[in-house]
Amino acid sequence: MAVMSRPLIGWQTLLADLSLILFMVTAAAQADSVPKKRATSAAGAAKPSQQGEALAVYRAGGHAPKLADWLKAQGQDPRQMLTIVATYADAGEEMAALAAAADLATQAAGVGRPARLIIEPGERADT
């Protein structure tokens, strides 16, 4: 009686192994072909602002309480960062947006919460 033996490796396994090898060789070749970015000096390079998920949002104006009062009601966590974003719609309104943001930053500093200011163009002027 003849005993039939099955192959230890099927064609699917062999093809998957070859595909992985081809992927690794291609990835290694691509990594070597990508040009490295030149290091720029810290003084002259503008870095994009850090983006994060907002835990709470305060909008200035209207019937909103003062920022200092609002911040006192919020929980304080050293891992969180207070970011004040002021937008301006037209060129030449940058200084007004900066003044509004600086006023809010002063209020925040008064309750011990340092702030990061971001002044950027937008569809409408808002803080």
Write the layout of secondary structure elements.
Layout: H1 11-33, H2 67-73, E1 82-88, H3 94-110, E2 115-121
Parallel strand pairs: 1-2
Strand segment count: 2
Kindly report how far apart the N and C termini lie: 88 Å
Strand content: 5-15%
* Rg from Cα: 28 Å
What integer is the average pLDDT?
80
What order do the strands of the largest sheet run in, or round the barrel if closed? 1-2
How is the main sheet built? 2 strands, parallel
Element pattern in H and E: HHEHE
Unreliable sequence segments? none
Helix content: 25-40%
Category by helix and strand content: alpha+beta
- Taken from the alpha-carbon principal axes, the silhouette is elongated
Number of helices: 3
Explain what the structure shows.
The protein is of the alpha+beta class and 127 residues long. It has three helices and two strands; from the N terminus they run ααβαβ. It has helices spanning 11-33, 67-73, 94-110; strands at 82-88, 115-121. The longest helix has 23 residues, at 11-33. The relative contact order is 0.13.
